[in-house]
Amino acid sequence: RISVAMKANFAKHGEQIVGNLPKLPGYSVEDPTTRATTHPRTLAFKRGMGGFVKANDDGESNFGNGGFPIAASFKIPASDEALSEFQNFNISQGTEFTPQYVALDGKVLRFDAYVREDVPTIPNEGFRIRNFTIYYFLVDDSIRIGETKQENSGIAQGIFLKRHRVPRSAPSSAQPTDRSAHSEPPLTSPSRSHGKFLTWEDFQIGAELEIYGKTFVLTDCDSFTRNFFAVKGAPQGPPIAPPTDPYLGHRHGAGPRVAAKHPDDQRARFLASNKRVLRFFCVWDDRRNVYGARRPFVLHFFLEDDTVEVCEVRTPNDGHHSFPKFLRRQQLPKDSATALQDIGSRPARFHTDADFTVGDRIKVFGRDFLIYDCDDFTKAHYRSKYGITQFADLTDRIETPAVEVPLREVPPHTGFGSEADSMQSIYHLIPKAPRRNEVKMMDYAGKALRFMARMDTALPEDQDRRFIITFYLADDTVGIFEPPQQNSGVLAGKFLERAEHRNPATGELFSASDFVIGECVEINRHKFRVLDSDKFTKTYVESGGENVRQHLYTASLVSIMQNINKRYEQAREALRSAFHVMDKDRSGSITYEEFIQALRSIHFDVQFEDAGPLLAFFDRQGKGFITYSEFCDSIVNAAEFPAFLKAYVAATGPGP
């Protein structure tokens, strides 16, 4: 809403303010005191004749709302003939005036009225008073009547009479008013009050107005209506109070009907106790029956409607089905036996929160539940409502003593297969293959420690026998071989099958550290004294296994090339896959570092400074990288590598 001071300020300085603003699209300012409209004002009147306002040289209107200039994008063009006819009109021929339909547009008179309506069918009521609002439109003398809505009236209220000109009743229902003493001429002709339709002169506060058989008594009007009649010389009288409807007065005098408060108001309980739940920890001991057990439960009591639900407490390997609830949420009857017998009838008594106490037993449809504990909220509820401060702690009483789980005895090994295979029959109903250390098997594949030993015995025929004890590093297995000896009289060959064997001295499987030169070791109830070992075993033992890869996988370049050729000679289609595996950066070529790394991944410990001939064989042009075609050609022509190596050594000299 616009204040009066704002309207006055804009009316005084509005034209100056608008003139100083730039006329840019989107920055046009309109007078807020004028009526809002989307159409610019281009209509003016001369002697009651409507026409376009004065246009500029372009033949366009220059004025908008309130007579202020408008933006060029909003100008409305006018035809030359209409403009010349309107502008050349001789205004001196008569007096300039505004037409009635323009001057009275939007002017409405408002009256308050009532109708006294008899009600003969209802003795207690007699009659009723219905209030109305009458609108009189000055522009066309039309009338609209709306009924004021009353609560619980039982009448379809709202628009009582649609807007139209109302015919006058005969004789006239309005009291005649002498208007000859006033100097102000009436709004319309004097004969207007004697026409066929009601006019503004027929409205007077306190008078009765008959419209279509209904007698309306005018009681009051708004300030605009009073000013209008005052200007016309027919001031309205003071407002009068409408009569009181006796039936409505009787109803209002009785006051609002207050329903009797029920001692157990479910709605009030819901608002006060919604989502407030008591939680009890219970146990059901059913061990007296066959296959019975002592099972824990959680009992929830809902304060909002005195319902109960019982939930199971799941424990690992308890052997029971995982039902989410033992008892769905419902009211729990106190006499559950009678409730089960009288199916279809509602029990009279149900459990409330006063029936639950820690240490007591409660029947849940024939099952005795012992309440041994509750949560803190439940304790606070009983402390505030019932004054109970002591709560028994029966947790130790219901705890089941822990049963000592017997240890699973592992039967002795039968000797067939490995112990790991036999243990799978204990761990699984369907035996599975034991898991192996794949990394260890790949690192130590084909590598073993060899010891020379003799049998430590008192029998003279066995003292000269010699044995080769082999310890395989890949899977920690032990095998014994007896080499042939002339005139020994003993059949040489495999003395002990390769398998895992347990050291009787330690109780664990044999390891590399159990074989010491000069010491005695017992294998499969035979005692052997270790006499010597090969060079690789001595190197491995002296280094403690730290430099095992260097000693295990050092091989000549010729053997490396033969091994690579052997890998791919039967699977030529695997060359592309091998090349892509070596090409880590997906550049389409293999660098020297990537090639050496690939050789190490297949267990060849090749140093970069020692791999010069091998790299030169794959990279004949010395580009510093190996293409896919060079990689395939070099592997296919691996038989040429020994001759290439001799020529390379002759040209560059022996390596380090």
Report the biggest beta sheet as strand number plus sense, adding barrel if it closes: 6 strands, antiparallel
Mean pLDDT: 77
Low-confidence stretches at least 5 residues in length (pLDDT < 50)? 59-80, 172-193, 549-554
**Percentage of β-strand residues:** 15-25%
Distance between the termini: 102 Å
Shape: elongated
Helix coverage percent: 25-40%
Strand order of the largest sheet: 6-5-4-3-8-7
Number of H/I helices:
20
Query: What is the gyration radius calculated from CA atoms?
Result: 58 Å
Structural class: alpha+beta
Number of DSSP strands?
22
Summarize this entry quickly:
With 656 residues, the protein is an alpha+beta fold. The protein contains 20 helices and 22 strands. Strands 6-5-4-3-8-7 form a 6-stranded antiparallel β-sheet, covered by helices on one side.
Could you explain how this protein is built, in words?
- The chain is α+β, with helices and mostly antiparallel strands and about 650 residues long.
- About 25% of the residues lie in helices and about 20% in strands.
- The protein contains 20 helices and 22 strands.
- The strands form five sheets. A six-stranded antiparallel beta sheet has the order 6-5-4-3-8-7, with helices on one face. Strands 12-11-10-9-14-13 form a six-stranded antiparallel beta sheet. The chain has a six-stranded antiparallel beta sheet with strand order 18-17-16-15-20-19.
- Strand 13 and strand 14 form a beta hairpin.
- It is elongated, with a radius of gyration of 58 Å.
- It starts with a helix and ends with a helix.
- Residues about 60-80, about 170-195 and about 550-555 have low confidence and may be disordered.
